[in-house]
């Protein structure tokens, strides 16, 4: 242990009054007479920290990193350095800079001894159709990526014209919004007379419309000829069966008196009623 030796020969001695250093300004392990030692030899109290220590406090002050390290003397030199060395633990540094989550640091980048895990997505490019969506992946994006909308014309390839789209309705056709002009006829109803016709109007029909015709019907029947004219009333009626005119096998020329015509059949029978009984005509 080193000592400061005060000589006693050759005149008056040197005492505390001749010193300027105080005992807390003397390195620990060394002795000296100091200004506050009353001419007594005291041992210094300054801790000898050697060449290196860890910072006891780390903080940001006015945009600067301020380190507080233990009080003492740093008189030794660390190998390769021209002065004392102050260490900061990785955890202390992470705490002071607020870096606690590796997922907030880009992968491949190390801060305070911890490597980041944030994925590097670079320039992500995605094309969307109308109504589509894209979930942007978590990670770092360099600002050059794009989400673009595909051409509307390419998504609405169609052949419809305005006249083929219901009036008041719209549709996209080859990138253009088209408003329909097809009339909405709804449920059209029409009654037809016999042999009548109806022109169906152009446009959309709901399928509930009707074209009807009400005609009286008449079933089939047989008419027996008589001496008077008979009329079968079929006017304006739809026949559901045949009208049959009865015939008679006796209606032939030999059964009809000559000179008489029945229903167009001319008689051929000679009338001999003028002859006396048993008389033969010549």
Number of strands: 24
Low-confidence runs of at least 5 consecutive residues: 1-12
Task: Quickly count the helices.
Answer: 2
Name the strands of the widest sheet in spatial order: 1-2
Approximately what portion of the residues adopt beta-strand conformation?
A: 25-35%
- For the termini, the CA-CA separation is 201 Å
Looking at the structure, what is the overall shape? rod-shaped
Please tag this protein with its features.
282 residues, mainly beta, two-stranded parallel sheet, 24 strands, disordered N terminus
Short description:
This protein has about 280 residues and is mostly beta strands.
Summarize the structure in words:
The chain is mainly beta. Among the domains are: 1-46, no CATH class; 52-88, no CATH class; 101-141, no CATH class. It has two helices and 24 strands. The chain has helices at residues 90-97, 152-155, and strands at residues 31-33, 41-43, 52-54, 57-61, 64-68, 85-87, 110-111, 114-115, 120-122, 125-128, 140-141, 146-149, 170-173, 176-179, 184-186, 189-191, 204-205, 210-212, 216-218, 221-223, 237-239, 243-245, 261-262, 265-266. The chain has a two-stranded antiparallel sheet. A hairpin with a 2-residue loop joins strand 4 and strand 5. Residues 1-12 have low confidence and may be disordered.
């Amino acid at each position: 242990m080193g000592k400061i030796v005060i000589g006693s020969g050759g005149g008056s001695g040197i005492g505390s009054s001749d010193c300027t250093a105080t005992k807390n300004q003397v390195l620990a392990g060394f002795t000296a007479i100091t200004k506050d030692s009353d001419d007594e030899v005291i041992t210094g109290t300054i801790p000898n920290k050697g060449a290196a220590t860890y910072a006891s406090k780390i903080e940001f002050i006015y945009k600067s990193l301020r380190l507080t390290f233990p009080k003492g003397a740093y008189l030794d030199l660390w190998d390769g350095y021209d002065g004392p060395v102050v260490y900061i633990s990785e955890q202390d540094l992470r705490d002071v800079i607020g870096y606690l989550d590796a997922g907030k640091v880009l992968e491949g980048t190390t801060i305070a001894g911890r490597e980041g895990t944030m994925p590097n997505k670079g320039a992500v490019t995605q094309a969307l159709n109308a109504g589509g969506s894209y979930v942007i992946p978590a990670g770092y994006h360099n600002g050059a990526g794009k989400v673009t909308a595909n051409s509307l014309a390419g998504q609405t390839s169609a052949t419809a014209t305005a006249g083929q789209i219901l009036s008041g309705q719209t549709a996209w056709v080859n990138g253009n919004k088209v408003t329909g002009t097809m009339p909405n006829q709804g449920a059209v109803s029409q009654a037809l007379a016999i042999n009548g016709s109806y022109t169906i109007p152009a446009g959309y029909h709901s399928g509930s419309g009707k074209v009807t015709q009400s005609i009286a019907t008449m079933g089939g029947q047989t008419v027996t000829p008589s001496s008077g004219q008979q009329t079968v009333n079929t006017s304006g009626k739809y026949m559901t069966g045949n009208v049959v005119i009865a015939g008679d096998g006796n209606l032939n020329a030999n059964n009809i008196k000559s000179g008489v015509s029945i229903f167009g059949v001319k008689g051929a029978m000679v009338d001999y009623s003028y002859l006396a009984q048993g008389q033969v005509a010549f």
